[in-house]
Amino acid sequence: MIIVLLGYMGSGKSSIGRILAKKLNYKLIDLDDYIEEKENATVKDIFRTKGEIYFRKKETEYLKALLKLKENTILALGGGTPCFAGNMEAILEEDNAVSIYLKGSLPFLSEKLFQKKAKRPLIAHIETEELMTEFIGKHLFERSQFYNKAEITVLTDNKEKAEVVEDIILQLF
C-alpha cells in the first residue's frame, strides 16, 4: 500500500510521514526530496532556473511513477502537488494508494508558519501574522477543493505528532 500524505505547507506531511513510516515499517519518500535527487537541484533552484511549468511537469512524472511502487510506502507530497496536472485524480485512481489530508485550520497554520517562516522561501518575505493569514487563506481557498477529495481527513490543530499518527492508523486499519 502507498499512503499519500497531502495538505498545506506546515501541516506535518514530512514529519508525520517519518513517524508513521517508522511505526508501520514502511519506506518514506518525500516527493520534493525525491525530485531534488532526480533533478540534481533544489526545488528552489528548479523554479528559479527552469520555471514552475518545468517543475510541475517533473512533479507529475515522478508522482505517477512512485504511485506504481509495489512496496509499502509513505509518500509525502508537496503542498501544491494535488492541485496540478490531474495529480489528485491520479492518486485517487490508483488502487494501491490511499490519500490522507492532514488538515490544519487557517489560524493554526498561520501561527505555526509565521514562527518558522525563515526556513520557508515561499513565505519568508511576509512581515506580519495578519499578512500570513491572508496569504495562507488565499492558498487554502484555492487548494481545498483538491485537498478535500482525499479519502481520509485527519485534523492536526494543536495535536502532538504522535497523536496525529495514531489518528491515521486508526482510520487506516
Automatic annotation (TrEMBL):
Gene3D superfamilies for this protein: P-loop containing nucleotide triphosphate hydrolases
Transmembrane annotation, as ranges: none
Binding annotation for substrate: D32, R56, G79, R143
Protein name (Swiss-Prot/TrEMBL): Shikimate kinase
Gene Ontology terms, MF aspect: ATP binding; magnesium ion binding; shikimate kinase activity
Subunit structure: Monomer.
Positions annotated to bind Mg(2+): S14
HAMAP family recorded: Shikimate_kinase (MF_00109)
GO biological process: amino acid biosynthetic process; aromatic amino acid family biosynthetic process; chorismate biosynthetic process
InterPro entries hit by this protein: P-loop_NTPase, Shikimate/glucono_kinase, Shikimate_kinase/TSH1
Free-text function comment from the UniProt entry: Catalyzes the specific phosphorylation of the 3-hydroxyl group of shikimic acid using ATP as a cosubstrate.
The entry's keywords: Amino-acid biosynthesis, Aromatic amino acid biosynthesis, ATP-binding, Cytoplasm, Kinase, Magnesium, Metal-binding, Nucleotide-binding, Transferase
SUPFAM superfamilies: P-loop containing nucleoside triphosphate hydrolases
One Pfam family named in its UniProt record: SKI
Annotated Gene Ontology cellular component terms: cytosol
EC category name: transferase
Family note: Belongs to the shikimate kinase family.
Keyword Kinase attributed: yes
Cofactor note text: Binds 1 Mg(2+) ion per subunit.
Required cofactor names: Mg(2+)
Subcellular location: Cytoplasm
Catalytic activity: shikimate + ATP = 3-phosphoshikimate + ADP + H(+)
